[in-house]
């Protein structure tokens, strides 16, 4: 039903509703909010990777004029282990509590150990330097290799490896072992004509959103706290602040500001509960804005990994066996996205014999958090690099090799379900037909391709549509708009109501104005919240038809809604009835039954996966080792692109982040476990002069479970670039880079050794 | 330490404020003058979110002391539109969907305007290098570069 439909608004490119505020500087982001009488909070962070906290004395800080309160781990309630949602994943609130404020031990460089609030940020800063913390420094582990080695220093004495039977009763840094697979691996490899086997490592990287975390908290005598902050999940912040501070959820209201990027990194809490606690103790509002250095040291980056892949195939390219071993850094607390990595890495391919083994490993680095398709990019880097080598061994075109094995509707996904309509084959075909693949390469240039798969999430959403008295409409949702989703929601409402999209006002509401919404994450807002908007808008249209029916004295079935007006049909059209426009019906609402509005709360199921194929050309400078991406094409299935401009933007932005991951970005630690590059100068993200234009192709294979066929698109684009770049470098130089990033010194060293 | 009385012009308007001797122009704009359109991404001169002009020259306001602006002209994003009318750069950013989260946008607009003021007909490469001091993590720059080139053409009165 969705493919034949003609759309009036969906698929157009209107100017976003929040656009003018954002190009004039009026839009309020996290740090832009202030309250009278507000105090400024600052956080003291551990300078050690691993240390026992022997004592903390905040008295000298409190003695400073202007310092109002100070808190340490002792002020945080000890809460029991309990799982809750954060973004797309699950977290243990007890561990979130210990991450936002250390207790017995500091577990990474940057781990908060105390916080203060003072009348100015300068005084607060000065106060931090007066807090006396006595540490007993402990040996630390920074990588999965170190953490898994026999006799390694242990982060958590109570941690046991889950997923082993029986669970060994020994302290360990391996929080979990998982295994997924099917078929007979040995038989699969025995059948193979060619086998490739490779090992890969990737480093911890950061989401790199330009806006640091910021919060203002105000607490009153009525025990209520109001929290203004930049977050992907206002309801997540509410739940976490409540849990961590032992309060009822109803005691906390979260008002999301505009959000300056998140990419998964703003789906949990860091300074928010601290600001609430400080404001409750001080009886005054407290603002905390993280510095860039704090963002790098103390928020949640993405896992560094070690991955081994072995693939077997027949001479015609058909995969006979796929095996992988993955170990992911979780940071200081369990919960890396290794499971998602394992589930995604071979998901684009129909291979019968599979075994994937994964390890979730704690290390003395910040607790990782979601980063765009969490877990998938390193795993796909490994799988797609190995496939590239396999294509070379087989003498096959890399697109052809992937087409031979591509999953399609009805294929059983390695992680369980059967795929419904999907666009894997279509993105590969689009790649094959794209002029980019046929363009000539220059000297020192090479070309690589890679694919990517992401599940996409549905989860819980609430949205309402209200008709205003002049026939315009307001759409309210609770999912912060991180890349234009507000306008996508307005487009869907406009489509159903049959009014101009600029007559629809989309609003992101606070946690008391709309029903529960899971966070903006999992590429789910346009899909899931969109469904809630469509349902609400359809309800409004039904009410409009009812009003018209009662005005005309006909049955509901005799009223059709078309292009913003009620038309008489089924016999009603034989009389003299004039169409009733939405404006007329809105103006007469008071006399025909009252205001017209509807709200919908749902758990969206059937988020269709989105597949992508990327093509990358690089030029490698043999003198300096610099790899320049000279041409790039991102092809992806959007199901139905609601606002194509913002769909392209997701493809381009994800590609750029993936290119940064491939070429330059990494957390660099010294031997003491102290982060050496917590700033944008040394943590090198792509700038405008590093990149070419990023060409996009939007493939549309409708998602059968969405009324318009929409699939989430936000996350998949970061998955293929790591291997697409590495495969291009391999093509240009003959050298296979298994270790990211391919920064100039690394590349130069390998080229010289050639 | 006492506060310093600074007399300056901001977006063409005579403005006075008090600041701490160590306070940056960025902090003075945001905290003393409530001009929060200028954003903070790093305070170390590496992201360009705080871009403003000082006597027409592009600077990172996080690297300028507020007191240094005594007697000078400061231009911020708040001064870019003329009343109700957006500057062509602002308009083109909207039309090209050149912003996703929008936190980098004020900095890019100020930097792009500084470029077009001195080079009305830049090549793509010139735009990329002129804006290399501004980080955008959302867009991959593609639509930003197109918007700037398109605005430049419009400002020149080009119809090609
Ligand atoms: S805040 Fe000034 S350059 Fe980043
Ligand atoms: S639009 Fe988000 S950083 Fe540029």
Description of the structure:
The complex is a heterodimer of chains A (754) and B (160). With 754 residues, chain A is an alpha+beta fold. Chain A folds into three domains: 19-26 and 458-604, Aldehyde oxidase/xanthine dehydrogenase, molybdopterin binding domain (Aldehyde Oxidoreductase, domain 4, 2-Layer Sandwich), CATH 3.30.365; 33-138 and 210-261 and 266-298, Aldehyde Oxidoreductase, domain 3 (Alpha-Beta Complex), CATH 3.90.1170.50; 305-456 and 608-753, Aldehyde oxidase/xanthine dehydrogenase, molybdopterin binding domain (Aldehyde Oxidoreductase, domain 4, 2-Layer Sandwich). Helices cover 28% and strands 25% of the residues of chain A. Chain A has 21 helices and 28 strands. In chain A, a hairpin with a 6-residue loop joins strand 26 (610-620) and strand 27 (627-637). In chain A, helix 10 packs parallel to helix 11 (376-394) and helix 19 crosses helix 20 (721-733). The relative contact order of chain A is 0.13. With 160 residues, chain B is an alpha+beta fold. Chain B has two domains: 4-77, Roll (Ubiquitin-like (UB roll)); 88-156, [2Fe-2S]-binding domain (DNA polymerase, domain 1, Orthogonal Bundle), CATH 1.10.150. Chain B is built from five helices and five strands. Chain B has a five-stranded mixed beta sheet with strand order 2-1-5-3-4, with helices on both faces. In chain B, strand 1 (4-10) and strand 2 (13-19) form a beta hairpin. Classes of the chains: A alpha+beta (754), B alpha+beta (160). Chains A and B meet through helix 1 and helix 19 of A and helix 2, helix 3, helix 4 and helix 5 of B. The structure holds FE2/S2 (inorganic) cluster (2 copies).
C-alpha Rg of chain A (nearest Å): 27 Å
Lateral strand order in the biggest sheet of chain A: 3-7-1-14-11-12-13
User: Which superfamily, in CATH terms, is the homologous superfamily of the largest domain in chain A?
Assistant: Aldehyde oxidase/xanthine dehydrogenase, molybdopterin binding domain
**Major β-sheet of chain A, in short?**
7 strands, mixed
Anisotropy-based shape of chain B:
globular
Query: From the structure provided, what is the oligomeric state, counting identical versus distinct chains?
Result: heterodimer
Q: Looking at the structure, what is the overall shape of chain A?
A: globular
Proportion of strand residues of chain A: 15-25%
Number of helices of chain B: 5
Q: What's the gyration radius of chain B in Å?
A: 16 Å
Overall pLDDT score of chain B: 96
The domain tally of chain B reads: 2
* Annotation field: number of helices of chain A: 21
Distance between the termini of chain B: 58 Å
Low-confidence stretches of chain A: none
Number of domains of chain A: 3
> What fold name goes in the CATH topology slot of the largest domain in chain A?
Aldehyde Oxidoreductase, domain 4
Please report the total strand number of chain B as a whole number.
5
User: Ligands in the structure?
Assistant: FE2/S2 (inorganic) cluster
């Amino acid at each position: 039903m969705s493919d034949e439909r003609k759309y009036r608004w969906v698929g157009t490119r209107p100017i976003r509703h929040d656009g003018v505020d954002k190009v004039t500087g009026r839009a309020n982001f996290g740090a832009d909010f202030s309250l009278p009488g507000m105090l400024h909070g600052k956080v003291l962070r551990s300078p050690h990777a691993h240390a026992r906290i022997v004592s903390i004395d905040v008295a000298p800080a409190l003695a400073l004029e202007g310092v109002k309160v100070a808190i340490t781990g002792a002020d945080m309630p000890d809460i029991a282990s309990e799982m809750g949602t954060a973004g797309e994943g699950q977290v243990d609130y007890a561990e979130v509590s210990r991450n936002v404020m250390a207790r017995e031990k500091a577990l990474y460089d940057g781990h908060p150990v105390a916080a203060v609030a003072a009348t100015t940020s300068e005084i607060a800063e000065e106060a931090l330097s007066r807090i006396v913390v006595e540490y007993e420094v402990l040996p630390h582990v920074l990588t999965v290799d170190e953490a898994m080695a026999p006799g390694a220093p242990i982060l958590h004495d109570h941690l046991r490896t889950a997923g082993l039977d029986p669970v060994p009763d020994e302290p360990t840094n391996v929080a979990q072992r998982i295994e997924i697979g099917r078929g007979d691996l040995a038989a699969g490899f025995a059948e193979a004509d060619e086998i490739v086997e490779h090992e890969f490592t990737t480093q911890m990287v950061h989401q790199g959103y330009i806006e640091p975390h910021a919060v203002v908290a105000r607490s009153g005598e009525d025990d209520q706290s109001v929290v203004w902050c930049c977050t992907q999940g206002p309801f997540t912040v509410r739940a976490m602040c409540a849990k961590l501070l032992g309060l009822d959820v109803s005691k906390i209201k979260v008002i999301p500001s505009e959000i300056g990027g998140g990419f998964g990194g703003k789906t949990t809490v860091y300074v928010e509960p601290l600001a609430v606690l400080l404001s409750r103790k001080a009886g005054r509002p407290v603002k905390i804005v993280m510095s860039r250095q704090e963002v790098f040291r103390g928020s949640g980056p993405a896992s560094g990994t070690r991955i081994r892949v072995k693939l077997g195939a027949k001479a015609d390219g058909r995969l006979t066996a796929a095996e992988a071993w993955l170990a992911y850094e979780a940071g200081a607390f369990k919960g890396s996205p290794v499971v998602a990595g394992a589930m995604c890495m071979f998901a684009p391919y129909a291979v019968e014999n599979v075994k994937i083994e994964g390890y979730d490993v704690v290390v003395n680095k910040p607790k990782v958090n979601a980063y765009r398709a969490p877990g998938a990019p390193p795993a796909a880097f490994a799988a797609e690099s190995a496939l590239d080598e396999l294509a070379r061994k087989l003498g096959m075109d890399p697109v052809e090799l992937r087409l031979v094995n591509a999953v399609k509707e009805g294929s059983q996904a390695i992680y369980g379900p059967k795929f419904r309509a999907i666009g894997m084959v279509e993105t590969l075909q689009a790649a094959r037909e794209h002029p980019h693949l046929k363009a000539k390469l220059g000297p020192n240039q090479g070309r690589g391709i890679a694919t990517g798969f992401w599940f996409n999430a549905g989860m819980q959403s609430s949205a309402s549509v209200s008709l205003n008295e002049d026939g315009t409409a307001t759409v309210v949702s609770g999912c912060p708009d991180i890349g234009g989703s507000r306008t996508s929601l307005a487009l869907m409402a406009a489509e159903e109501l049959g009014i101009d999209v600029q007559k629809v006002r989309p609003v992101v509401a606070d946690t008391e104005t709309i029903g529960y919404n899971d966070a903006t994450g999992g590429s789910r807002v346009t899909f899931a919240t969109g469904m809630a908007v469509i349902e609400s808008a359809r309800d409004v249209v039904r009410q409009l038809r009812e009003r018209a029916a009662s005005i005309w004295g006909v049955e509901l079935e005799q009223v059709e809604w078309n292009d913003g007006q009620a038309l008489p049909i089924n016999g009603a059209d034989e009389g003299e009835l004039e169409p009733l426009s939405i404006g007329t019906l809105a103006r007469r609402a008071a006399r025909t039954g009252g205001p017209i509005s509807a709200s919908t709360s749902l758990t969206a199921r059937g988020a269709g996966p989105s597949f992508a194929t990327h093509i990358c050309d690089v030029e490698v400078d043999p003198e300096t080792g610099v790899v320049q991406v000279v041409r790039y094409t991102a092809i992806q299935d959007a199901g139905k692109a609601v606002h194509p401009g913002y769909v392209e933007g997701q493809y381009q932005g994800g590609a750029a982040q993936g290119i940064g991951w491939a070429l330059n970005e990494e957390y660099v630690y010294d031997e003491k476990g102290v982060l050496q590059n917590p700033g944008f100068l040394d943590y090198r993200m792509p700038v405008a002069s590093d990149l070419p234009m990023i060409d996009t192709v939007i493939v549309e294979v409708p998602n059968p479970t969405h009324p318009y066929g929409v699939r989430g698109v936000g996350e998949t684009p970061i998955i293929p670039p790591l291997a697409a770049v590495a495969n291009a470098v391999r093509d240009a130089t003959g050298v296979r880079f298994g270790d990211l990033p391919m920064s100039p010194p690394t590349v130069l060293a390998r080229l010289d050794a050639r | 330490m006492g506060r310093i009385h600074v007399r300056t012009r901001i977006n063409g308007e005579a403005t006075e404020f008090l600041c701490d001797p160590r306070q940056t122009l960025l902090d003075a704009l945001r905290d003393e003058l409530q001009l929060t359109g200028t954003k903070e991404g790093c305070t170390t001169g590496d992201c360009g979110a705080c871009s403003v002009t000082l006597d027409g020259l592009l600077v990172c306001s996080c690297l300028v002391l507020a007191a240094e602006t005594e007697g000078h002209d400061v231009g911020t994003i708040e001064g870019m539109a003329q009343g109700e009318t957006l500057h062509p750069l602002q308009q083109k950013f909207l039309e090209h969907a050149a912003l996703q989260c929008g936190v980098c946008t004020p900095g890019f607009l100020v930097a792009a305007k500084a470029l077009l003021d001195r080079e009305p007909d830049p090549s793509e490469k010139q735009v990329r290098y002129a804006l290399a001091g501004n980080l955008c993590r959302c867009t991959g720059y593609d639509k930003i570069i197109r918007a700037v080139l398109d605005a430049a053409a419009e400002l020149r009165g080009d119809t090609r």
